[in-house]
């Protein structure tokens, strides 16, 4: 028989487990040491990383795959190191729980200068209020458990970060634990929903070229099956966005590609922009999603529904939410598209064969080679920069998983993200695509991966600096030190390392990595600094124009 | 003839140079690229680090030694990575200027989801308001230069961080540059100052055992000479605090030691706590300074003056500031101590000779060895943990410089700090003492040091984990992966590496490092996990009691 939790922190641990959490990422410190000890004696497993930043990114990746991820740190010197990774989770709707230790309430009398304190005792709380949908400092034992329920429910409801601050003398405070059943998700207003669905059905039925866009919330709220049900019932083709890439398998016969304005593939752009009824489900239209504003969408022809409300043409339904709206569409009486004019779908080219040549490897050929090995047993992680933009062009045929901070675009996500991803989905092996610049930020977390028996394959796209920036504005500030990435496994005492210059060497290194699934692999791929993927070229043209435009504007 | 700056950013660059800044630390990104290009064409030198966190710590160290340090980053994905290092600068009064790029004002129309945006366009500004004494987003060309003057003056006045956000379309906006002379420092109220000095002179004159404490503001405001003038005139002995260690040379005949309650040396504690008139100048009494509240100071017997006001016994003089107060003391008529009863001063032991033995090296012996090599051509940096607490016990005989985050105690400061320190003071060679846990956070910045021709000697105190925490609460979370630190120079392509187990090996490695002043050196010192310095033992006893007390309290 399950024992009842007796303390606030036991209750917190139990609740996290209820939500399916099995791992907690973090770095200990004296204000949170007791809680780490309680974690060690709990069913949750502590994964401590080299630096808190790594823990933040790992927990974010875990949250994206599991529905909830947790990072646990000490007061200020820990918490303030994960402001950026929490901001990323907020921007990209990842349900991340930040737990921070804090000075005990009994230590705060007369406002002393306790170590790690910045300005006031609530400085850290004030900062996290900017980055979360719910935040609490547990200053009372009585309602501690209710507060925990409220805050965790918000993370799950809004798929965004929440913050819990645990004063160390409350960690072991006994409490009466309500442990109510988990609160039901917020429902749409029934009348508003009916009206919105009626209107949507009218618009879809009279359209000749309807197109669906599956946004990231389809993945966050686990709506893939409903989405596909609607696709199958109506025959309406669909696209994804950079952030929601691979949410649905890309070898689906009705898949149009990843839509990103002029940054994406031309045929996808044509199909989406020529639609006379664009149904965007769970998408939020960021500048990267919109190809840095190269998208040409006619708002009068759009239907959009997300977790925070819905929109048709120029009017809003604030109380109609994605889950109900999509279910309503599935249940509605909509004629299949067969009687209407279907859009032209880009032909899915056959899986390319890759004949290695003994020539210097290029970005384009590297991605052709990768496409031949990616399968349903992999999770692909891409760091912003060439790695991410080239990866968006990849066709992921199998139900593989793709993770990238495609909106917030913070560098340094992918290597620590792979730790979170493989723990969240131990059936998948992480394939990490990361630039040399991003690797130097957080890449040493491969040692954390090795320590916990994980086996990411880390492909370092080594073009001697910040390759995304060179085409915009170049200078010495885009250069970085030339690490010998393939030697790092030796220096951290674990893993395989390869240095490759040619296609043949790359294919061999990749094969060796795939054959050894017990340790991490680092493959240092030397690329020409002027070699860019077509996607990056399209992107930097757009971004460079912005940089130059603002320079000109102010001259 | 000097040309007049024509744009807001040229004005900013000129003003920074006026304040003595020669280097700027940062990582570029598209919202700040143009400013990086302007920096590259300016007399300021850009030092780009592996990760923004490293730039933040490097700039903090530079600020401590130069009077102003600058870190320059891109919007959110850069700025939010340096929240912790900026918090440290705030907590420890370091005059750090944070410059962040931002989306152009012309890009913000209708509040689009631009990449890197978190919640609102001012999210980052709101966060930095919590951590700075002045913050501005330059949204108007007209008063841009005045804003720059206001904000930089605040950094210099309060010795705390300030924040400047540069929308990218204002970077090159032309402006009328007032370029007023730099504003004079804020002065004390003359009447209040006279009253406070009269009272102070009375108290000091009638005391039998007056003792001075030189706090960190003596260093921050460059008051060492005035302080020593007062010491020489009156014969009053002085102590420092952990944060202000080495502000004054420790071989001064009137130096009592570093005061830190029970955590410091017993003879220093006796001298300070038995004083009948304790004159604290520029000190702020943190818990670490107070030996985690083991200090026993009688407030009725204290005089305290700092940059934000003064205090005697239980009453305050809010408009009397340190610089004026100290000058007033120097000018006052105070009888030298010779006629009164002097305190017992701890005898300065002769510089120890170090005979190496072919035995496993211990913490205690390692510091004995270090004491024989530290001289006036070094800057010593210590990371929180064993490295810092053992270093506080070191006697620094020469006017060497000691830098450590002794109050905020954020791990990961020392290696990137060494970059800032050596650029600020190229006449000094950095000797870095860092635990293995802290090294894994930011230690790879040695590659930045190598890239810019710097030569820190990095001593990794390798005790297989978070040694400071083990005596408090131990568990698997205190273990870290076993890197082979001495192999890292090979992996980054520069520097010397040594792995040492014995005293002889350590002395040899240290000699080799000292003999090669062109590249960084990493010395991996294997220590027993249960070997602690006396200072750390005193500290963890005090901290462990706190952890246990709060556990008990709440049971």
From TrEMBL, chains A, B:
User: GO MF terms on file?
Assistant: magnesium ion binding; pyruvate decarboxylase activity; thiamine pyrophosphate binding
| Protein family membership | Belongs to the TPP enzyme family.
Supply one GO BP term.
aromatic amino acid family catabolic process to alcohol via Ehrlich pathway
Cite a single Pfam family from the UniProt record: TPP_enzyme_N
What is the name of the protein in this document? Preprotein translocase subunit Tim44
Q: Which cofactor does it need?
A: thiamine diphosphate; a metal cation; Mg(2+)
Per UniProt, the keywords (alphabetical) are: Decarboxylase, Lyase, Magnesium, Metal-binding, Thiamine pyrophosphate
Q: Which domain of life is it from?
A: Bacteria
Q: Where does Mg(2+) bind?
A: 436, 463, 465
Q: Paste the cofactor note.
A: Binds 1 Mg(2+) per subunit.
| Boundaries of every Thiamine pyrophosphate enzyme TPP-binding domain copy | 393-525
- The Thiamine pyrophosphate enzyme central domain extends over 197-290
């Amino acid at each position: 028989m399950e024992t009842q939790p007796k303390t606030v922190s036991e209750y917190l641990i139990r609740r996290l487990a209820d939500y399916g959490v099995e791992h907690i990422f973090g770095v200990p410190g004296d204000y949170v040491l007791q809680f780490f000890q309680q974690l060690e004696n709990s069913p949750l497993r502590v994964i401590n990383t080299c630096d808190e930043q790594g823990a933040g990114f790992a927990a974010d990746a875990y949250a994206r795959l599991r529905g909830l991820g947790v990072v646990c740190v000490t007061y200020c010197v820990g918490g303030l190191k994960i402001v950026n990774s929490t901001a990323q989770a907020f921007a990209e709707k990842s349900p991340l729980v930040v737990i921070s230790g804090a000075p005990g309430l009994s230590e705060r009398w007369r406002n002393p200068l306790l170590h790690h304190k910045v300005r006031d005792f609530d400085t850290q709380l004030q900062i996290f209020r900017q980055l979360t949908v719910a935040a609490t400092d547990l200053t009372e034992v009585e309602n501690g458990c209710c507060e925990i329920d409220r805050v965790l429910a918000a993370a799950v409801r809004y798929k965004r970060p929440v913050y819990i601050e645990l004063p160390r003398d409350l960690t072991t405070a006994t409490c009466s634990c309500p442990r109510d059943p988990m609160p039901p998700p917020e429902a749409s207003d029934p009348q508003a929903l009916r009206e919105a669905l009626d209107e949507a059905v009218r618009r879809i039925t009279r359209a000749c070229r309807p197109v669906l866009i599956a946004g990231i919330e389809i993945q966050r709220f686990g709506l893939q099956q409903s989405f596909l049900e609607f696709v199958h019932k109506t025959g309406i083709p669909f696209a994804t966005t950079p952030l929601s890439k691979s949410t649905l398998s890309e070898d689906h016969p009705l898949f149009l590609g990843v839509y990103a304005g002029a940054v994406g593939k031309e045929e996808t752009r044509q199909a989406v922009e020529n639609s006379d009824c664009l149904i965007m489900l769970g998408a939020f239209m960021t500048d990267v999603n919109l190809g840095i504003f190269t998208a040409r969408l006619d708002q009068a022809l759009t239907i959009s529904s997300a977790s925070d409300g819905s929109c048709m043409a120029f009017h809003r339904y604030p109380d109609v939410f994605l889950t109900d709206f999509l279910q309503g569409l599935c249940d509605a009486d909509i004629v299949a598209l067969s009687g209407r004019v279907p859009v032209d779908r880009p032909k899915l080219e056959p899986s390319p064969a890759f004949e290695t040549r003994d020539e210097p490897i290029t970005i384009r050929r590297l991605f052709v080679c990768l496409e031949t090995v990616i399968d349903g047993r992999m999770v692909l992680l891409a760091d912003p920069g060439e790695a991410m933009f080239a990866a968006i062009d990849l066709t992921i045929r199998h139900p593989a998983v793709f993770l990238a901070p495609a909106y917030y675009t913070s560098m340094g996500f992918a290597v620590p993200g792979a730790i979170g991803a493989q723990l969240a989905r131990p059936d998948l092996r992480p394939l990490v695509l990361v630039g040399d610049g991003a690797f130097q930020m957080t890449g040493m977390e491969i040692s954390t991966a090795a320590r916990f028996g994980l086996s990411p394959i880390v492909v370092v796209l080594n073009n001697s600096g910040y390759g995304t920036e060179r085409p915009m504005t170049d200078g010495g500030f885009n250069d970085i030190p030339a690490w010998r990435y393939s030697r790092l496994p030796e220096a951290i005492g674990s893993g395989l390392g390869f240095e490759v210059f040619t296609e043949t060497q790359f294919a061999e290194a990749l094969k060796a990595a795939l054959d050894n699934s017990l340790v991490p692999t680092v493959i240092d791929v030397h690329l020409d600094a002027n070699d860019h993927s077509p996607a990056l070229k399209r992107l930097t043209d757009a971004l460079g124009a912005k940089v130059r435009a603002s320079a000109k504007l102010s001259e």
